[in-house]
Amino acid sequence: MIDLSQLYDNCVYSSIAHAIFILREPFFAAGQSWDGMNYCFNDFCGTRCTISFDPDEGIMAGAACGDESERVRKYPGFKAIQLFENAPDNIKQLARKEALEYLYDEWDGVTQPMATVAFWSVGGEVVIDEDIDSFKKNGGAYLITIAVSYDELCSYWREEYNLSDEEVSAVELIYKHFANHEPVKLEQVSIINQDCAGYEDCITALEEIGIAIEQ
Question: pTM of the predicted model, to two decimals?
């Protein structure tokens, strides 16, 4: 399992890959998004995940809901915050105020935050409070997928999104500029143009991370 800093970087890289992908596939624009320091993922097949970062405190709280997990049957009597039972108090507070607020759903007529797995950070390390296989089975597979090395993540998104060499180069350029706190000029990423079906969605996705494409 990677550390917290790498997880944040991987979420950013994943979102940039997604932004380039939706240039040609805008239908999937809602698959990844950011709201402040909250990173959200939706696979459109019943799994939603939110990872909430607090850079001031140097902590993270994440949760996911897998509709195919037997754990959804515990609701509505079960409360999602109970998944953070063994987490530190500041993690529980972050989960309650941020991560779980993005996972509202309705079950048996009751609308409330619903999650089937939770994870968090302690001392800069990502913690999963259960067996990995059980975690993946119950909605946590996406975290395991992106909690890998930089090279593995690049290869994953290239294959998952069927990215061309030009698209991969654009992702890597934007990511490098983001890491160096440098602006990105439109002329540097020529594949981002207004003729693309998902141009506006791409620009919005990048802006959510704090990346502005300058003319």
Answer: 0.97
